[in-house]
Every structure is written in structure tokens, then in C-alpha cells.
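This follows on from our talk about sequence and fold. Please put the record directly below this note.
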Amino acid sequence: MPSLLEMLIALFTPGTTDTVAIFWAKHLLLATLVVGSFWLLSQAVAYIISHWASRLTSFTRTDLDDRILKRLAPSISLLITLTGVYLALRTLPLPEKLLAASAGGLFIINVVIICVMLYRTLNETLLWYVERSQDQGDGKFARQMVPMAEKIVMLFIIGAALIVVLKHFHYDILSLVTALGIGSLAIGMAAKDTLSHVISGFTLMIDRPFQIGDRIKLGSGQIGDVVDIGLRSTKIQGLDTTVMIIPNSDLCNSTVINMVRPTSVIQGRTTVGVGYDSDVDQVKRVLLEIARNCDEVLEEPAPLALFTSFGDSALTMLLLFWINDPTRLGAVTDQINSAIIRRFREERIEIPFPIRTVQIQATESTIPAAQRAS
């Protein structure tokens, strides 16, 4: 096969122009046929994916595979077409350096296309997950998780693509990996507390001990509703409408009571003291009637009245009841307490004040001399 320089010399040599033209026409025709064949192949593959593959995926329970194939079809067609372009370039009598540069450019384009395909697969999977979470009532939490997951995976894809490209062009990637490792170590040591909170945030998102909107009780006794779960901290709105910003590592390393999961049923309790001369059975009956007459108290579990202890000046009675909304516990407790004091007055059940009897024993040293003489 003549080189490019020989063909250029032949162009300016009398009697050889027709031969060079025929030579280039043959190779250009062959290259065009190769590109055209692969383009037709890409269109056929796109048709198969859109018509036949969708029929196969219709047997699955979800539409995730259909959506992924639909997003990847254009990229697959482009990848096949570029393969044809690469093979067509190999058929042309180009210099080795020009051919190597063209092949390198096509390799970079193919890597970019593959990265786009990976990103589209990830994006479609996350969108499907968000839609599924919305059907299950957890869409807000999923929407917050998606952007962070996309950024992390995107950084990983870009890093992997960069390493593959550098390796293809015979660059030493060991120094790059070493520099990245040292830099990551330095950043980790400088921001270890922040990284601890971030890792704890991932733990909360994966383990999911609570979700946005849940009412939780912290180890310190504070109660509030989860309004946001971030990378570094979690925001909890207290019962007094103030917002507590708590680092995620503190939540991971402490006891947290979820008051609405697995069910939103919560127990309320009221303690009251009655006089020692009161009829305990009567007191229990009155307490149960008060709880049952409250509309928000559940029939199952049924309210329970207990005689718990002997106090210094009263018999201690405990009323247990259950409601279906933790946010209404304070209001229901107020209704029951108000009804208790009203019914006790009607039934003449005494709620005694604390009484303490002090006895003073007199001794001879404390009695006046005149009284002792008399």
C-alpha cells in the first residue's frame, strides 16, 4: 500500500493522476460501505430494543428494565456507529500517527458514551426508586437522598474514566493515585469530625431508624418531629416549635425512641392519689369510665386502671390509656385529667393534701422546774 507522501508525489506526476484517483475512490467507497453498514446495524439494534426487548421485559414485575433500555438505546446506537467509523479509518491508507490520533480520539469518545450510559442507568434507577417511595409514603426522604447519591456515583464514574483514559495512553497513573490517596488522608485528618457526621448521615439514611415526619424521643428526653435529615445534621422541631439541630453522629451513638413506628399507637398515663378511706374498686370503675368516654382513646388496647402503691398520705392510682396520634397525647391527657377531678368531686372521692403529723415527746430536761415541783 503506497504511503501518503508517495500518493502526493504521484498527483503531480504526469500520467499517474487517474491511478491515484481510482486508488482513493476504492478506499473511500470501502470506508463508506463500512460506516453505512454499521449505521444500519445500529438502527436495527435500536429497533430491536424498542420493539422486541420491551416485549421480553413486559414479563417482569416492574417497568425499571423498560425505562433503562429506552434511555440506553440512543447511546448503544451511537456506540455501534462509532465502531464502524473506527474500522473505516483502518481501511484508509493513513499515516500511523494520524491513525493513532484518530483511534485515541474515538476511544475517548467511547469512554464518554459508556459513562453517559452508566449515569443514565443510575438516574433512571433513582427516579424509579423515588416514584416507588412516594407510593409508600416516603417520597420526601427519597428525594433528598437522590441528589447526594447521584453526585457520589458521578464522581466515581469520572474518576474511573480518567484512570482508564490515562492508562490507554500509557501515562503513569501510580503517581496520580498516590497523590489522591495522600490528599484524601490529609483531608480526612483535618475534617475528621465533619466526616464522622457525614458517615453517620449515610448510616441514618441506610438504616432508617426514623423518617421525615416521624415523632421521636431523644436520649435526653426531648420530643420532636423530624423535619430534615442532612449530610451533617438532622433538624428536629420540638413541641415548642423550636428547631433542634443535632449532629448525625450524636443520633447514631445515642438511644432514640421512634414514637410512630412500627405503629403510631402511643400510651398515655395519669397518676392520681385518693384518700385511705376511699373504695379502691369504685375509683378504678370511675377512671375506666372516664377513659372509655373519651373519643380519642382506643378500645384496643383497652384502658387499664391500677392500684400501684401506698403513699404517705394517699393511695396511688394509675390510669393507662392508648391513642392513635402521638401529637394529641397532651390534649387527651388534659381532657382526662379535667374529667377525673370533675367526677371525683361528684362521686365524693377525696384527693388528699399531703399530711404530716409531728409528735413532740417531752423529757425532764425540757419541762420547767415549776411544773416538775408541782
The chain is about 60% helix and 15% strand. Residues 3-16 have pLDDT under 50 and may be disordered. The chain has three domains: 4-185, 208-258, 266-346.
